[in-house]
UniProtKB/TrEMBL annotation:
It comes from the Eukaryota. Pfam families: PDEase_II (PF02112). Residues 258-276 have a biased composition (Low complexity). This is cAMP phosphodiesterases class-II-domain-containing protein. It comes from Schizophyllum amplum.
Amino acid sequence: MHTFDMVVVGSGGGCDETNLSSYLIKPATAAWTDGIISLEGGSGQGALQQILQRNPKLLDCRKRYTASEIYSHVQCFLITHGHLDHVSSLVLSAGSLKGPRKRLYAAKDTLGDMETIFSDRIWPNLASWKESDDAYKYLYTPCVATPCSTASLLTLLQSGPSPKHKRVHTDVSVRSFRLNHGSNDSGAYESSAFSIRHDPTGREFLFFGDVEPDSLARHPRTLDVWRYAASKIPTTLSTIFIECSWPPAVPTSSCLATSAPSTWSTSSSRSPPKSSKLGERRVAPRTGASASQEEEEEPIEREDRAGALKGLRVYITHCKADFDAAHDRPIHEVIAGQVRQLVKDEGLGVEIIAAEQGMRIEI
Ligand SMILES: [Zn+2]
């Protein structure tokens, strides 16, 4: 029995305006009309309308919904960061969305970025911080991330369910982790990962926003997420959505070899996790990191890793569209195929799937 239903409204990586990061979810035992969480808001009603024209029974085999009707039941958006490929539709549709006021859950700096858009300049101001501002379609709601240090992990293991999850919907809570996205002239730029938990069963899945490999980051953070997830895989946490924008031929920090798998393997050692404990991964020392952030690198035998991630399903997201037709297949299939080969070579046992617009996923 699965826990969540998901519909992929958009899974692309930014340059295709018809297919931007956007995923609708609900508890499996509830109806879509009971309330929906939108993970990101890159694509929205327009994309869903196109999807439902091609597949009218995608959401429900007995009832046909319109895109407008579905979005009227969205209760909140969870936003990993404020880049346009993750928020453009929720901005454009703010004045036309039906249904109740909707919360925008995100880190405070991301909500600050949204304020610069809803400023009566780039777009009319349709969001506010006040619960009583019913005239504003969106309600800014900070999602506070807390680091998962070794000490807090011990507390977590001793105390059971995390108190750091925040209830965002009936039976659904979210824990937020901050990620490195990269840096620009203003300094470091951050993104988020979410652990989304079905409270009655305690089952969770992980959803990553754009993420810079730990091997390139001054202060590694993705490891915190793996430390959190390690003991839960695959029984409590069996599904991960992670960004992998580029195939490895592209010489960029976001490339395949140092993106999704790199969160299990450093670019220098490519050492995947040991005994299904992602958090037990050995991290190569890196310039600029403090001693407290480093652990000694320790070789992990391939035989020890065999089947280490069996039962885990990883969806590859955010692949950059191949407008030059450099590949004979859709780019998400190319990249997922390359990741699949990588984990097959390592014998990890994890299932790799390309997230695709219009897909319905049971988690
Ligand atoms: Zn981004």
